[in-house]
Amino acid sequence: MSETRNATIRITSDYWLEQILENPTKSFFIQWRNIIMGCCSVYKGAAAYLGFPESGEGYEEYAIEGDGGMTCRIHKDVLENWRKMGPMPEGDYLFTVQTVGRFRLAFSKSPFESLSETA
Q: Are 27 and 51 in contact, with CB atoms under 8 Å apart?
């Protein structure tokens, strides 16, 4: 696992922030996934899970703005796909939490500058 990046992230959902704070790890991670959503649809995109990934390999760590020492680990595949797609008009990036919904996060500065260095 790499060092925590200088950039921080802002989570725009109080609900998701509460879930992170209540988790003993005070952390979550985001992977690029294909998730079957019912009988006829598949979600392909960034999916978040509370806790730490099984393997820290390929993840960048970011501090979450606010109190509590919360962190987020984002897989390089997610960062690469977000770089290609670009942010929402508000500058946020979408991710989903299965059975809960979609949430947004924003970076304090671009995380994509390091991708070419580490790729």
A: yes
- Angle at CA of residue 16, ends 107 and 60, nearest 5°: 40
CA atoms within 13 A on the CB side of 21: 11
Per-domain boundaries in the chain: 4-110
Ranges of H-type helices in the chain: 14-22, 76-85, 115-118
DSSP secondary structure of 30-56? EEEEEEEETTTEEEEEEEEEES--S--
42-86 pLDDT tens trace = 667 888 999 999 988 899 999 999 877 899 999 999 999 999 999
Q: How many CA atoms lie within 13 A of 90 on its CB side?
A: 8
